[in-house]
Design goal:
The complex is a heterodimer of chains A (644) and B (249).
Chain A (H helix, E strand, L loop, with lengths): L14 H8 L5 H4 L3 E5 L3 H13 L2 E5 L17 E2 L11 H11 L6 H21 L24 E2 L5 H18 L3 E4 L2 E9 L2 E9 L5 E5 L2 E4 L20 H8 L4 E2 L4 E7 L22 E5 L2 H8 L13 E2 L1 H5 L9 H13 L11 E4 L1 H7 L1 H19 L8 E10 L2 E2 L12 E3 L17 H21 L12 H20 L5 H15 L6 H21 L11 H25 L23 H4 L1 E6 L8 E6 L14
Parallel strand pairs in A: 1-2, 1-9, 2-5, 9-17
Antiparallel strand pairs in A: 3-4, 6-7, 7-8, 10-16, 10-18, 11-15, 12-13, 12-14, 14-15, 18-19
Chain B lengths: L2 E7 L8 E7 L8 H14 L22 E2 L2 E2 L20 E5 L8 E3 L2 E2 L2 H8 L21 H11 L6 H5 L6 H13 L1 H4 L2 H14 L10 H5 L7 H15 L5
Parallel strand pairs in B: 1-5
Antiparallel strand pairs in B: 1-2, 3-4, 3-5, 6-7
Helix pairs in contact in B: 2-7, 3-5, 5-7, 5-9, 7-9
Classes of the chains: A alpha+beta (644), B alpha+beta (249).
Chain lengths: 644, 249
């Protein structure tokens, strides 16, 4: 099967405009004859469900949380980019496009990224109209900041809670459509399978998490807005419930999975404190605007720190290594996430880590406090400092923060064409669940932008184009394909409950996480990846013979929910390793030890790897088939990313 | 440290439920309260006992899922969410009592998990600005004084956890409802519909079975996001002015 990305012809800047004109429209009176399923109610899902319902379609929205407002988009801190150029500092749609393509290490599609930059300006207008309280200047206009390595101030923000405010905006729009009767909500409901009839996605099978009931839902199109798969690492900044199950089940029903090895490891998280740890907490990278990253110059001093023989303040200026400022004089502490993370790992691997585990570096605000005063620093970062103190018990106004990279975002996801449709007709993937816009590395404040772009401004056009060619008839929910999918889900529930082994679900999840972090994390190599594949296969075998899931399938059962998710993570983990192993180059978040420049930077191989890897599931126990979508760059010149 | 936990166990909504006591050891001060419960649940699972069910998700204090009533206080002794409460707030040998939110409008689903969908229905009754996607003015065409924007933001930070209801002797939801009414009433975008919004949201709040407000301030004192009681005053004003207005809303 040849992948058809369906990128419209014509000049880059006119593709989306002409595509919007060329898509088929559904007559307003006929929209109510179509039903659309939206799975997930984060930024992508809530915005898509609300916008499609406003157009007149009937929407069913599903989420596993108790309320759509709790989707993990809520936790995004820093901000959302938009090419408004309100600051008159040289920003433009083209510059946002260029920065995103370059930041993604030239592994994303030009047309998709350009469209993202174009609609970014509409997102801000939309959110303000909904009553999202963005930060403002005294003149009453919107404030911006520079964020995550951008050299212009294009990031809109709401203190350190931008994701929360944007999600509550989308949730309010969704709630309005619930009141209008155009959206039916299904909270505490997990999607267990996609149902494909005659080659088209025609519905889903779900499990009611309270009663355990397995139910079928028929529709004309299915939108997966189910987020990323960072929890394959067990420890990540994702919410505890974030999972890959919806995307993975879709993958097994024919949707290709793209670039699974592209994982973003965020540089500024609170370090791991012990084995009990259940999740990692991100500290917004806006902190890097004023905080200076350093470790001691020598291993000896670092050892004294780790044994607590000396305190950070005892270390003289000349014994401190501000390694990012030295190595990257023009970007300094603001280098992109992948670069900052790798360098932190590098200095810690040298033995210069600063906490007891040896896996932490300092993020120091001493100079900012001396320069601007403690009040000014509190004004900018107060809530983040408080959060840090609550978690660690240390006061960052007095002693430097300690940070270490953690898994934060996954750039890979379901393959989609320009219309955000997967390789299964009628099945769409939006937001973090797709692979489309961030290439091999996502820039800060771009995830919120993409989720809302897909949901508010892309899907409402492209889904209509597909529906316009479809009959109004729905596949009945007692159709044999629905029945078959229901039976499969029921037998899987039964199988998990009957194993009655000796180890808890978390035991397997933690073990998988360690394998992934050690061998498919910040740096990978062929030997480690080969070993990881064997280890994952063995662990999968052990899981299906020795996992212990208590309780029944007919009640609220948290270990059963988790068991389903971990079973899927085990399969995904293997594909991530395959993908990382086949990509014999380094790019963005994918760093292979074997492929680096003499200075230790990622070394791309554009001749052989300037493509999107799209994996096709071929059946249990079989290696997946690799399809390649060549990436064509007509508007940017591929260069070695340099932040020196 | 070693602790004694008195935990509310209840199989399902219709059951009576009751406290069960568990001993737990080897708890480190760096653990979060929920990580302590994770340890308990791993112990219980090893013994073949059903783990304690509780709501949680982001574990960074923003999603509003976690909801435990700890030693008689929602989210425990500090003004924070349970996921951000750390075991360094307790001492070796302590006995900790853990209950679900108690309110008629929040029926218990299982153990410590309650049904808070009443909050969603209140938002559905009017907690929004009625704009469709597209066709809105440029974001900077609506200047908003910084102090107003900041005040609106303070109200908007509510995470919908329900601690205000749990803290209130009347199980009133006024802090939650007033936070949304205030956020929108303060902003020019939300002013257009403010009267109808106040009336509809208050009516829905009553229909859900939440109690009335007697101004004890427990809600605000326990709110992990420090939502101010002045929101309730603003809500009452909006509601009152809506009820005496002859304008169509």
């Amino acid at each position: 099967m040849k992948l058809n990305s369906k990128i419209p012809s014509g000049p880059l800047s006119e593709k989306w405009t002409s595509h919007k004109f060329n898509v088929k429209l559904v007559n307003p009176a006929n929209k109510r004859k179509y039903e659309i399923i939206v799975v997930g109610t984060g930024l992508a899902g809530a915005s898509a469900a609300a916008s499609l319902a406003e157009l007149g379609y009937n929407v069913k929205a599903f989420c596993f949380q108790d309320s759509p407002r709790r989707a993990h988009s809520i936790a995004a801190q820093g901000g959302i980019n938009a090419a408004k150029n309100y600051q008159n500092d040289g920003d433009s749609v083209f510059r946002l496009f260029y920065d995103t393509i370059k930041g993604g290490d030239y592994r994303s599609r030009e047309a998709n990224v350009y469209r993202l930059a174009q609609v970014s300006v509409n997102i801000i207008d939309q959110c303000v109209a909904q009553g999202v309280p963005f930060a403002r200047e005294y003149g009453g206009l919107l404030a911006n900041r520079s964020f995550g390595g951008a050299q212009v101030s294009r990031t809109f923000y709401a203190r350190g809670q931008t994701g929360q405010q944007l999600l509550l905006g989308a949730y309010s729009a969704l709630s309005r459509q619930v009141a209008n009767g155009k959206v039916k909500l299904y909270p505490r409901t997990e999607m267990m399978d996609v149902v494909v009839v005659d080659g088209k996605a025609r519905g889903i099978v779900t499990r009611n998490l309270i009663t355990g009931a397995i139910e079928s839902h028929s529709a004309h199109a299915v939108l997966l807005c189910t987020g990323g798969y960072g929890n394959v690492f067990f420890l990540s900044t994702n919410a505890m419930g974030s999972n890959v199950t919806a995307a993975w089940r879709a993958h097994k029903k024919g949707a290709f999975f793209s670039n699974p090895c592209y994982t973003q490891i965020h540089p500024t998280c609170i370090p791991v404190s012990g084995d009990h740890q259940s999740k990692l907490t991100l500290m917004s990278e806006s902190l890097r605007n004023d905080g200076r990253v350093w470790v001691p110059k020598t291993v000896e001093i670092a050892e004294k720190l780790r044994k607590r023989e000396i305190a950070p303040k005892d270390i003289k200026e000349e014994d401190r290594d501000y390694y990012l400022e030295t190595k990257y004089p023009s970007f300094g502490n603001l280098v992109p996430r992948d670069v900052a993370s790798r360098n932190a790992k590098h200095v810690c691997d040298e033995g210069r880590g600063v906490n007891e585990t040896g896996e932490a570096v300092f993020l120091d605000f001493r100079d900012a406090i001396l320069r601007d005063g403690e009040d000014a620093v509190r004004g900018k970062y107060g809530n983040l400092f408080d959060m840090y103190e609550k978690i660690t018990g240390e006061n960052p106004y007095k002693t430097p923060m300690m940070i270490y990279p953690a898994v934060h975002y996954t750039m890979g996801g379901l393959w989609v064409d320009y219309n955000l449709m997967t390789s299964v007709p009628g099945l769409y993937a939006l937001g973090e669940a797709n692979f489309s816009d961030h290439g091999a590395n996502r820039l800060g404040a771009s995830a919120l932008m993409q989720g809302l772009a897909d949901g508010y401004f892309v899907a409402p056009y492209t889904v209509g184009d597909y529906l316009a060619g479809l009959s109004y008839d729905k596949v009945p929910e007692d159709h044999s394909e629905f029945r078959k999918a229901e039976e499969e889900v029921k037998s899987r529930v039964k199988q998990l409950l009957e194993i009655n082994g000796s180890k808890t679900v978390d035991y397997f999840h933690k073990k998988l996480g360690k394998i992934m972090w050690n061998h498919c994390g910040m740096a990978r190599n062929a030997a480690g990846l080969t070993k990881a594949k064997e280890m994952i296969q063995a662990l999968k075998g052990e899981f299906w013979s020795d996992v212990k899931v208590l309780g029944t399938g007919e009640e609220l059962n948290l270990s059963l929910e988790k068991a389903h998710r971990v079973a899927d993570f085990l399969e995904l983990g293997e594909l991530m390793v395959d993908d990382a192993l086949h990509r014999n180059e380094s790019c963005g978040g994918h760093f292979r030890d074997e492929y680096q420049t003499p200075e230790g930077e990622a070394l791309r191989d554009d001749e052989n790897f300037a493509y999107v890897a799209a994996w096709e599931y071929l059946g249990e126990g079989k290696d997946e088939a690799l399809h390649k979508e060549a990436l064509v760059f007509e508007n940017v010149k591929l260069t070695q990313r340099s932040y020196k | 440290m070693n602790l004694t936990l008195k935990v509310w166990r209840q199989k399902k909504t219709a059951d009576k439920g009751g406290f069960k006591t568990y001993k737990i050891s080897g708890i480190s001060a760096d653990m979060s309260f929920l990580e302590m419960l994770d340890v308990l649940n791993e112990d219980l699972s090893d013994k073949g006992e059903d783990p304690v069910h509780f709501d949680h998700d982001c574990r960074e204090g923003i999603c509003g899922s976690c909801s435990l009533y700890i030693n008689g206080q929602p989210h425990g002794p500090h003004q924070t969410t349970t996921c951000q409460l750390h075991m360094r707030s307790f001492k070796d040998g302590d006995t900790i009592t853990i209950e679900p939110w108690r309110a008629n409008a929040f029926p218990i689903i299982k153990d410590l998990v309650v049904d808070r969908s009443a909050f969603d229905r209140i938002i559905q009754s009017g907690g929004y600005v009625s704009v469709n996607t597209g066709g809105v003015p440029d974001a900077n065409e609506i200047p908003i004084p910084k102090v107003i924007a900041d005040e609106s933001f303070d109200s908007a930070t509510c995470i919908g956890c329900g601690a205000c209801v749990a803290a209130c002797k009347n199980a009133s939801a006024m802090l939650f409802v007033s936070a949304k009414i205030s956020q929108l009433a303060l902003l020019p975008q939300g002013k257009v519909e403010k009267r109808g919004r106040a009336e509809k949201m208050v009516a829905q709040m009553d229909a859900e079975g939440f109690g009335a407000c007697t101004n004890t301030g427990a809600c605000s004192a326990e709110c992990p996001k420090e939502i101010k009681q002045s929101n309730i005053a603003r809500m009452n004003r909006e509601y009152f002015s809506a009820s005496v207005s002859t304008e169509e809303v």
